[in-house]
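ingest -> validate -> predict -> emit
validate: passed (alphabet ok, no gaps, 182 aa)
predict: started
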Amino acid sequence: MSEQAGPGAGADEAEPEDPAGSVAVTSRRSMEIAVYIALLAFAAVMAFDNVRTGIGWASDGPRAGYFPFYLSLILAAASLYGLAKVMIERQAGSEAFVTRGQLRRVMQVFLPTLLFCLLTQWLGLYVASFLLVAGFMRFVGRIALWKCLLTSFLFALSMFITFQIMFDVIMPKGPLEALFGY
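emit:
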């Protein structure tokens, strides 16, 4: 019997994965192929840019693109090796990389975080942080609304006092801070 049951239980215990969530979204093999191709493309762009910058030697030593160019060649070689290995071993990566339930849980964190980054540009760090913390507490944690609002407000206020007032650190600010003269 576990020591902690009920609302305080861990995330895995609180919300079991539904049977439909066990369906694989993609295989490990296809994800490995996608990552190796993306790394190969990045290596190609990096190599091209460094050739443009200069990969030779000047009178005072290597030019700016010398070391990054050779790093891009190493990255490309490693990507080609990994890609060839995945292509040869057809059965090795056929297991599921992520299921629907797992992907849904990852998206519950990724999408609000992406929205937070975008909202920070218009609303400022403190208001966006308030919304992020309140949203996570309410929709993911299923915590009472008053607790979400109070905790989020205290968190954003403590960040504001710490960064803006105590340490005078320049952080992205929005219209609310401008309303109060910051």
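The chain has two domains: 23-94, 99-179.
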